[in-house]
Structure of MarR family transcriptional regulator:
Amino acid sequence: MSIESKKWLFHVAIEKTNKNTHEMNYSLIKDVLDLIKMFENENTGISAYQNDVEGFKIWMAKKYQPLIHDQEVDWEGKLTGRTTESVIASLVVHMNRFGKNYFKSAIYGSDFSTPDDVIYLIVLKFSQNMSKMDLIKKNVHEKPAGMQIIKRLIANGWVYEKDSDTDKRSKVINITHAGLRALDAVMEKVRHATDIVSGDLSNEEKIELIRLLNKLNDFHQKIYHKNFDPKTLLNNVKDFKTN
């Protein structure tokens, strides 16, 4: 948000408190500034709203509109006690499977073996000199599965590895010209698959979904990077739930 917009909001807060109490209410001003910070944090990267007063007002209106009561939303098993958590978990799994089907179709008849091969190359196209583990973690894979994908990409001549410039004991990987050509050959269909995944959601619904998925992703990334053993994973994540 621009400095001018912040000054305007600051002035509004002061004027409002002066009218009501005839003295400065610093608590209200702090609350307004906290809201501005929250707005900027949520809007960073996705630019769902204009980064000015008008965008802030629209964000406020949507952020604090009355929430839809759960009675207005129906789902299978609701009347027999199926929880919201169960529904969310199932739907996330289903969306993953739907997406995989579309991406399998996108690479059908190409030189790619799996959609993950394409995703790894896309990451490498925009990120140079990545370590293998950084690439694997970026795609939220387990090490054995990720290493198999990388080996396949190297064998196809789409990725090459070299000594790290900062640590000669380790190696980094990059996409090759052949990898870029292979990627370009399927990108039109990949984009088509990507468009289908978001279904018939309106742009407003897409932005809201991104916000919610980002929140979920941030939560699970913290757990993922702890590298908990599967045997103790569920016990260790209890402390991550805050509500």
Remarks:
- Strands lie at 159-163, 171-175.
